[in-house]
Each structure stands twice: as C-alpha cells, then as structure tokens.
Amino acid sequence: VDNPPVRRVAIFGGTHGNELSGVVLVKHWQENGAEIQRTGVEVKPFLTNPRAVEKCTRYIDCDLNRVFDPDNLGRTVVEDIPYEVRRAQEINHIFGPKGSDDAYDLIFDLHNTTSNMGGTLILENSRDDFTIQMFHYIKNALAPECCPVLLIEHPSLKYATTRSVAKHPVGKYEK
C-alpha cells in the first residue's frame, strides 16, 4: 500500500491530568523542541487537558479520552457543556477534523498506568499498515527491552479517544 508521507505529528500529554509523565515531556518539548523536530515533519507537543493537569486529577467533568465521538464533537456549545467535551471540540478543530484528509497524520497520546505492563503501545486498528510497521520499528529499536502492543479493536466500536482524531492514532502507556 502506498501511503502519503507523514508530515504532521502531535504528541499529547495530560489527557488524564493525574498521569504526569506525558505532561512533563510535553512541557519540556514545548520549551525545547529540538530533540523531537525532524526535517520535513511538523511535530507539535500539546497539553490536552490543562485544567485537570492543574488540579492533578484524571478529569474535571468527564473523561476526555472518551468524548471524541460524533455526538460530542457535534454538540452545540452552551454554557453548561462539560469542560472536556468543549476541550474535545477544540482539539478536533486544531488537529482534525476527525476522519478528514486535513487531520494530523499521527497522534502519540502519552499515558501512565498503575498496571504492571511496562512500556506498552496501543493499536486501535489492525489494518493500519503504517502504524503496524512503525510499531515493528519501535520494538526492534528497543530490543532487547520488551515493548508489548495491545490491540483494542472491536468491529462494532468506534473509538472516541483523543488520539482517534489522527489518521494514525497511537497510545503509549508507561508504568
């Protein structure tokens, strides 16, 4: 399959405000992005849920990582709309729109976990040849360290994660 080159990449941290590894990395790269920049590729570090980060809590009104569905992204903005739904609409406007040719090519969404799963990559689509090849490259680059890949694909589910805005969504969980 001949895919167009990846030109726009976003690195998300703080989708859950109490998961601080991604927050620390994003803030570092916002101040000094030289180590993530590559010729011919725009790389944008982005703090996804700044209010939750400020309070060091998972979320303010609802889980940001569950509201990127068509209903929430299409909701009319009213005063009592949950903060994370409004934030999802903003993120979709900046990095999407979701499902469009204009969407960012790749979003890396950095998370922490309390599970003993080490560094784990999350794949949402087993037919995404680009992401599968990228994961293969990452796993080989990290060898002999273990880097499991978790497939969270289900035929009747459309994922509503922050990273699902991109053409190639990638989750990264770290213990």
From TrEMBL:
Its main location: cytoplasm. One of its GO terms (cellular component) is cytosol. InterPro entries: AspA/AstE_fam, AstE_AspA_cat. Residues 6-169 form the Succinylglutamate desuccinylase/Aspartoacylase catalytic domain. It is found in: Cytoplasm. CDD domains: M14_ASPA. One of its GO terms (molecular function) is hydrolase activity, acting on carbon-nitrogen (but not peptide) bonds, in linear amides. Gene3D superfamilies: Zn peptidases. Keywords: Cytoplasm, Hydrolase, Metal-binding, Zinc. The keyword Glycoprotein does not apply. Its cofactor is Zn(2+). The keyword Transmembrane helix does not apply. Belongs to the AspA/AstE family. Aspartoacylase subfamily. This is ACY2 Aspartoacylase. It comes from Chionis minor. The lineage of its organism: Eukaryota, Metazoa, Chordata, Craniata, Vertebrata.
